[in-house]
């Protein structure tokens, strides 16, 4: 079982200090919220690693367990950051194939990390024009908090 602490960053070898304050972090967290919302009704999704031409983070929900794996697969032109099917994928590490965490732990960590992010950027951007982005992000987070697990 994957440790629920810091799995979002551990699974993709990212360090918060390296991406904090960048557009990438905002987009990353927004995409993770979207994945969590959609996994309430879906059993498989993959999220593109935008810094790689062929790397994906695969999410497979089995019962209420969530398997998160790093895979490589082609990224055809015109494909969005989230896909619902990947063909010809190869797993980065075969030892990760049986690692999982509960979907509720996944959802709760996203809520916790995103809440911290909103608080941090709200403090930094008190006088900024980013309030619309913050409000949009908060709305998505509220949607995640109110979705029931299937």
Provide structural commentary.
With 150 residues, the protein is of the alpha+beta class. The chain has one domain. Helix content is 41%, strand content 19%. It is built from 5 helices and 6 strands; from the N terminus they run αααββββββαα. Strands 1, 2, 3, 4, 5 and 6 form a 6-stranded antiparallel beta sheet that branches. α3 runs parallel beside α5. The longest helix has 22 residues. The chain starts with 6 loop residues before the first helix and ends in a 5-residue tail after the last helix. The N terminus is likely disordered.
Task: Chart the SSEs and their pairings.
Blueprint: H1 7-10, H2 16-19, H3 23-38, E1 44-48, E2 55-62, E3 65-72, E4 82-83, E5 90-91, E6 100-102, H4 103-124, H5 131-145
Antiparallel strand pairs: 1-2, 1-4, 2-3, 3-5, 3-6
Helix pairs in contact: 3-4, 3-5, 4-5
Individual helix count: 5
- Helix share, percent: 40-55%
What percentage of amino acids are in beta strands?
15-25%
Segments where pLDDT lies below 50 for 5+ residues?
1-7, 9-21
Could you spell the SSE succession in H and E letters?
A: HHHEEEEEEHH
Number of domains: 1
Number of strands: 6
Largest sheet: 6 strands, antiparallel
How far apart the termini lie comes to 21 Å
Main structural class: alpha+beta
Based on Cα principal axes, name the global outline: globular
């Amino acid at each position: 079982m994957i440790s629920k602490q810091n799995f979002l960053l551990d699974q993709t070898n990212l360090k918060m200090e390296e991406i904090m304050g960048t557009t990438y972090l905002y987009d990353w967290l927004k995409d993770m919220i979207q994945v969590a919302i959609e996994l309430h009704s879906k059993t498989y999704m993959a999220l593109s690693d935008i810094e790689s031409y062929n790397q994906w983070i695969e999410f497979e929900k089995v019962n209420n367990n969530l398997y998160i794996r790093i895979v490589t697969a082609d990224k055809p032109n015109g494909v969005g950051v989230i896909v619902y099917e990947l063909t010809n994928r190869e797993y980065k590490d075969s030892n990760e194939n049986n690692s999982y965490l509960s979907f509720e732990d996944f959802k709760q960590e996203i809520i916790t990390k995103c809440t911290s992010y909103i608080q941090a950027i709200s403090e930094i951007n008190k006088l900024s024009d980013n309030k619309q982005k913050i409000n949009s992000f908060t709305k998505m987070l509220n949607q995640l908090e109110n979705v029931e697990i299937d």
